[in-house]
Design brief:
The chain is an alpha/beta fold and 282 residues long. 28% of the residues lie in helices and 11% in strands. It has two domains: 124 residues, 3-Layer(aba) Sandwich (Oxidized Rhodanese, domain 1); 113 residues, 3-Layer(aba) Sandwich (Oxidized Rhodanese, domain 1), CATH 3.40.250. The chain has a five-stranded parallel beta sheet. It has a four-stranded parallel beta sheet with strand order 7-6-8-9, with helices on one face. The N and C termini lie far apart (50 Å).
Length: 282
């Protein structure tokens, strides 16, 4: 059985030593970018390897391409191959922050044409609550051949600019409601959102214990957000293309497929002050 959206700790546990599986720790903190690697060295799921959001799962910044540009696909595929990922490998990603970083690897692998990838539902906290062990042992893995083929292409800024007023474009912003309105912005130089966007904070996809809501509930809620429009009209974005993937995963869990990612997101959009921006006032 292949896992393509989420996987529970109970489903993952029997495969920890499975050579055809690879588990990746994606813990991160935007304010303290080295904290994830430090936490990994101290304790992680057995046989998990670490991938850094900035160094492994993002590319070089130019000042106009957002805070977390997409990595070079060939470089990412080479890194994953060196981590033992082949085209038949089941990949599992996790973090300790409501899956807000693990979803990046989920989307990136799908972008590379590899759909046998799932997010650990509830992340490290759920793993520990289930009574499973952690270790500080760094695994040694044999490299594998990973042949990539781009799919699930991200939406470029030019497309958003050209289709901003089109009825068949539904922008879905995953940031918190305050940042969407233009309040309490601390990460980007300009506050607000792309005109016409709808707000769906990524944490609305989760239950109180950090696990994804049941598929039926997500389907009901997301259909209400989409206002009767098909998922293929959705372009998801956030601050830098990370938590937007959370909404994309939630849509997949709900069976609402076809949504796309605006990878540059708000941090790329607002880098050009001539682009239209909306701030909501009370």
């Amino acid at each position: 059985m292949a896992f393509r959206t989420i996987i529970s700790p109970e489903q993952l546990a029997p495969h920890i030593d499975d050579a055809s599986w690879r588990v990746f720790d994606c813990r991160h903190d935007l304010a303290r970018p080295d904290i994830g690697a430090q936490a990994y060295r101290e304790a992680h799921i057995p046989n998990a390897q670490f991938l850094h959001l900035d160094r492994d799962l993002s590319g070089p910044k130019t000042g106009t391409n957002g805070r977390h540009p997409l990595p070079n696909p060939a470089a990412l595929a080479d890194k994953l191959g060196r981590c033992g990922v082949s085209n038949s490998t089941q990949v599992v990603a996790y973090d300790d922050a409501g899956s807000m970083y693990a979803v990046r690897l989920w989307w990136l692998l799908r972008w590379l044409g590899h759909d046998k990838v799932a997010v650990l539902d509830g992340g490290l906290p759920a793993w520990q609550r289930a009574g499973h062990a952690l270790t500080d042992k760094i695994p040694s893995v044999a490299p594998a051949a990973f042949a990539w083929r781009l799919s699930d292409a991200p939406v470029p800024t030019a497309y958003i600019e050209t289709h901003l007023r089109d009825r068949d474009l539904l922008l879905l912003d995953a940031r918190g409601a305050d940042r969407f309105r233009g309040e309490n912005e601390t990460l980007d130089p300009v506050a607000g959102h792309i005109p016409g966007a709808i707000n769906r904070p990524f944490r609305d996809n989760l239950t109180a214990d950090g696990r994804f809501k049941p598929a039926e509930q997500l389907e009901r809620e997301l259909k209400e957000v989409l206002q009767g429009r098909p998922a293929k009209q959705v372009v998801a974005y956030c601050g830098s293309g990370i938590t937007a993937c959370h909404n994309l995963l939630a849509l997949e869990i709900a069976g609402l497929r076809g949504a796309r990612l605006y990878a540059g997101s708000w941090s790329e959009w607002c880098s050009d002050r001539n682009r239209p921006m909306t701030v909501e006032t009370k």
